[in-house]
Every structure is written in structure tokens, then in C-alpha cells.
Design brief:
- The chain is of the alpha+beta class and 324 residues long.
- The protein has 3 domains: 81 residues, Glutathione S-transferase Yfyf (Class Pi), Chain A, domain 2 (Up-down Bundle); 121 residues, Glutathione S-transferase Yfyf (Class Pi), Chain A, domain 2, CATH 1.20.1050.10; 94 residues, no CATH class.
- It has 14 helices and 8 strands.
- Helix 4 packs antiparallel against helix 5.
- The longest helix is centred in the middle third of the chain and has 26 residues.
- It starts with 10 loop residues before the first strand and ends with a helix.
- The chain binds glutathione.
- The site of glutathione (GSH) has 9 residues, from loops.
Length: 324
């Protein structure tokens, strides 16, 4: 139940205007009919992906580890999406009835989260739009996961994932499996895994969630911003190499493994994650740019190295500067 009026006792769940890492908690709050402020921050569009809406507040909220999503519940200020989900689970008695159920809930949540992470990594990566990569994801990662979830559900004698009533695991499983089945062709696969399909349907039809799920899927995007390979290539080709880097597409940097060499004062590019005729040009541009040029071009933006499609933690400007 989203509320727009501010009441100091009301829960606040802050995240981008996307489903992303906040959605399982949103499902839980809607299921429990908890009034909460669904604070959604807007991210700007191409090419800057302006994050000011969030950055203007980021360090003013009293969060120990400022990030999105965050939850404010009175004097409790939490970040880390799974900590938020498990906290809400405990608060609303949705973490099982004993240690065994709780362990199963956590196992299922983490398993579902891992699947979603692989899906997201592909979507945000340079090959996210490639039909071949999507097909490969469906045939390998998704198939293996659906097989395992299907086997779990076929053995499970409860009405929901670990009990005869929903727990935190149901919200996480629903959201993560549902969104990981978004590529064309996934739904054909889902027909084969009837227990998973029936589970998704059961959650979708919960009277407490039915309307919310329809509304959220129609209005709130699943991903933050889609970064497509063609956009990178187009912009990179249009760049004037003499002046590069000039204007900012911060996600150029996301595709690279960057290492700040304090001695030479340069960012060393060790890997570029897609094959292109422009590769050598791009590499030489970046190699020849000083760290100051890069910071002028990319301003406050973080750089997130991705190696072999695995995103490494976000490095702040000062982390790179200090080479720590
Ligand atoms: N491990 C954290 C990751 C949080 C994270 O990476 N948040 C992204 C959005 S998914 C973000 O944009 N955070 C805002 C920031 O870095 O300032 C979690 O699960 O909550």
C-alpha cells in the first residue's frame, strides 16, 4: 500500500524507479498491506544517466552505508536488499516457524537471487541485446535453474515454497524467476517446468498481490536503463579521437577492467568485453587519457569493471584515486 503523505512512523523504501533489488520487499509490503512510502528516484536518460535525484539525498538520510535500496523504519536505517527483505520477513512473521524453515527460506532466496544476478549481468552487459547470448542464457543458465526449482517444487508438499502460507522465499522466488524469464523464448521453456509455472501462477493470483503485480509490471520497469551494444558502438564511432574523452557516457567505462596506475597516473585498460573493429581505437584512446581527463569526462560517475560478464564492486572516484 503506497502512501504519498509523509508520516514519521511510516516505513520508507527507497530505490530507483525500477523493480530491481527492491521489488521482493515491495511485494512483501503489499502482501502484508503495510502502509509505506515507495520512494522512487528517477535516473536520467542517455547519454548521462543523471543520478542527481538520488545523489542529492544520498548522504543526507543518515544511512551508515548509503545505497539503494534503503529502508527507514523509525530509527532503523538499513541498506542491502537482502538485509531489508529478511528484516521485513521477521517483522511480519514471514521467515518460517523454526530454524529449519528459516534456513530453507534463505537458501531459496539466495538461489533465486543468483539466477537474477546472472540475468541482470547479461542484460546490462555489452551483449544484453544479442539474440545469441539470450538464447544461450535460456538454454544453459535458465534451463538448469528451472530444472532445479521444478524438482524442488515437485518434492515440496506445502502450498507455498516452504510452508502452507507464503514466506519471504515466495516473494523472492516469484520476482527473480519471473524476471529471469523475460527473454523471448523463455516462456516456451517454462511450459516444460509445470511446477515452476504453477508456483508463479499461485503467487500472481494471491488476492493481496494480484492487482499490485499487474500494475507494477505495467508501470515500473524491470531494469534501470538498458545499455545496448549498438549505443556504445555508435557513440564511440562518433567520438572525435583527438578530443576524447569529451562528453560522458559513463558506461564506456563499465565495459572495461580499469586499473589505476598511481605511478604513471593513468588508468590502464586490461580488458574490453566485446569484440569490435573499434576495439583498438577505443583502447588506445583510453590508454592515452590521463586520469584527470577521465574524471572530467565522467564526473561523479562510478566506474564498474566487468570481467567475463561478472561485475566487480563499484569503485568510487576516491577509491580509484587512492588505488585501494
Ligand atoms: N549489495 C547491494 C547492492 C546495491 C546496489 O548496487 N545498488 C545500485 C542499484 S541496484 C545503486 O544504484 N545504488 C546507488 C548508489 O550506488 O549510490 C544490495 O543488494 O542492496
Amino acid at each position: 500500500m503506497t502512501q504519498s503523505t509523509t508520516d514519521k512512523d511510516q516505513l520508507v523504501l527507497g530505490y530507483w524507479a525500477a523493480r530491481g533489488r527492491a521489488e521482493s520487499s515491495r511485494l512483501l509490503l503489499h502482501y502484508t498491506k503495510t502502509p509505506f512510502i515507495d520512494k522512487m528516484y528517477q535516473m536520467g536518460d542517455v547519454p548521462d544517466y543523471n543520478r542527481d535525484d538520488w545523489l542529492n539525498e544520498k548522504y543526507k538520510l543518515g544511512l551508515d552505508f548509503p545505497n539503494l535500496p534503503y529502508l527507514i523504519d523509525g530509527d532503523l536505517k538499513l541498506t542491502q536488499s537482502t538485509a531489508i527483505l529478511y528484516y521485513l520477513g521477521r517483522k511480519y512473521n514471514l521467515m518460517g516457524n523454526n530454524p529449519k524453515q528459516e534456513a530453507l527460506i534463505i537458501m531459496l532466496c539466495e538461489q533465486a537471487y543468483d539466477l537474477r544476478l546472472k540475468f541482470i549481468t547479461l542484460c546490462y552487459g555489452p551483449n544484453g541485446n544479442s539474440p545469441n547470448e539470450q538464447k544461450n542464457f535460456i538454454e544453459t543458465t535458465l534451463t538448469e535453474n528451472l530444472q532445479q526449482f521444478d524438482r524442488y517444487f515437485s518434492k515440496n508438499k506445502n502450498q507455498f515454497a516452504v510452508d502452507d502460507r507464503p514466506t519471504v522465499a515466495d516473494f523472492q522466488l516469484f520476482y527473480c524467476i519471473d524476471c529471469s524469464c523475460s527473454f523471448n523464448g523463455s516462456h516456451v521453456l517454462l511450459e516444460k517446468y509445470i511446477n515452476v509455472k504453477a508456483f508463479l501462477q499461485r503467487i500472481r493470483e494471491l488476492p493481496q498481490l494480484k492487482d499490485y503485480i499487474i500494475q507494477s509490471q505495467a508501470q515500473v520497469p524491470m531494469l534501470l536503463k538498458r545499455i545496448s551494444e549498438s549505443m556504445h558502438l555508435k557513440e564511440l564511432i562518433e567520438e572525435n579521437l583527438e578530443e576524447w574523452p569529451t562528453t560522458g557516457n559513463p558506461f564506456y567505462l563499465d565495459m572495461l577492467y580499469l586499473h589505476y596506475d598511481g605511478y604513471s597516473q593513468r588508468i590502464i585498460v586490461q580488458r574490453l568485453n566485446y569484440i569490435s573493429d573499434e576495439k583498438e581505437k577505443i583502447l588506445s584512446c583510453i590508454r592515452n587519457a590521463s586520469i584527470n581527463d577521465l574524471f572530467i569526462a565522467y564526473g561523479y560517475q562510478y566506474t564498474q569493471p566487468i570481467i567475463e560478464n561478472y561485475p566487480f564492486p563499484l569503485y568510487t572516484r576516491s577509491t580509484i584515486q587512492n588505488d585501494t
